[in-house]
Amino acid sequence: LFAGAKAIGSQYVRVANRTHSYVIGEQGQLAQEIGLKKVDSGGNVVLINPFDKDLLFDKRLVDGAWVVSDLQLYLDFCAQKGRAQETADFLLDSRIRKTLENDIDALPDSQ
Q1: φ/ψ of residue 80, rounded to 5
Q2: Among residues 23, 103, 94, which one has the least CA distance to residue 86?
Q3: Using an 8 Å Cβ cutoff, are 59 and 71 in contact?
Q4: Most CB within 10 Å of its CB: which of 57, 61, 91, 95?
Q5: Where are the beta strands (DSSP E) in 3-106?
């Protein structure tokens, strides 16, 4: 989420105290390879196995990190606590609405 917040220029995320990553494949093997240790609480790395690869549709590379689409990022921020909702609102107002308005304006007149 932090890479996504940085990608959209959110002023609400200053420090990343937790990293969320979608992982397609074996999470345990990846965690072992990069030296992660499983904890019951207070972890700072969250590996998520997406239930559907469509979550990664329209992903983009930002400063060396893959970031999901604006829509998926919005949904992910909405699912978090704290200031994440402010970032979701910022994303909705600054990017998603503008994209939708541009898409609507680009539609041919239906006459």
Answers
A1: -100, 165
A2: 94
A3: no
A4: 91
A5: 19-22, 45-48, 60-62, 65-67
Average pLDDT, the chain: 82
Q: What is the pLDDT of residues 60-73, one digit of tens each?
A: 888 887 888 889 98
Helix axes 84-91, 70-78, angle to 10 degrees: 150
Contact 24, 49 (CB under 8 A): yes
Residue 35 pLDDT > 90: yes
- Please check whether residue 77 is in contact with residue 91, taking contact to mean a CB–CB distance below 8 angstroms: yes
Question: What's the CA gap between 28 and 87, in Å, rounded?
Answer: 30
